[in-house]
What we know:
By secondary structure, the chain is of the alpha/beta class. The chain is built from eleven helices and six strands.
Amino acid sequence: MKLKRGKAYRKLMNQYQVTFNFREPYQVLVDSQFVQDAARFKMDMVHLLKRTVQGEIKPMITQCDMRHLYNAEDKDEQLILQAKTYERRRCNHHELGEPLSSLECLSAVVGNTNKNRYVIASQDPKVREHMRTIPGVPLVYINKSVMIMEPMAASTHQHRDRDERAKFKAGLKGRRLAAQPNQKRKRDDEEGDSAKGHNEDSIVEGASRDARPQKKHKKGPKGPNPLSIKKPKKREASSAAAHGDCYKPDTNPEVAQEGGDSGKRKRRRKHKPKGEGGESRPTAEGEPDSS
Length: 291
């Protein structure tokens, strides 16, 4: 098998797994003509089926197709023994005098939905044409000693697209419900009319809460960070004006002459008289200073 073909088959079976839940081992339902052509081309049917579906398989054959092998003109006992090793699919047509055709038998087994997830391996063009109308049915056939898997049919494409759209809508619906946590779900009718009325009030309250207009932030240049701005220094004039009458400069001319323009009164230093021995003597209160 070529590398590109094997890669394409792997992607195809992956799509069947995701959309229709196919799992290994795949149940491959073969008909009598497919078994005969594989033996005529000397092909290892089970091994090539594994390579085609890119996984483990479980070969199966219906009771009607088994009877076709017994009733064949060129009856091959070895081929019949090989077909007996496959799992027998009970189609409940063994009570009939003549076996049904592969188209009728496989159509009854697969049904309208292929709920058992069969992979159909058939050489009958009518069988493959009918199976294309059923979504989710992989088809395999032999063409000149090469086993080929058909691409996905139109009905299968439509079913896959419809399933993807449903999943997408469900995801959007879940997001909308998650975005409204205040809105409560309605309870079942079994809880009574009182619970139902309370639930409806809560829904209205949540809807009104959501309907309130939210404050919009004005767009524009933002001011500087208040923590990074230095505090303004108070001016002396403003401080003097704030004090008002509490501050009055000294109008004594002598004090003003000694202190200059500062207007502040200077303290006079009193000299103490010296006594005997050059030591200073404390002056009595009211005694004039000898110096």
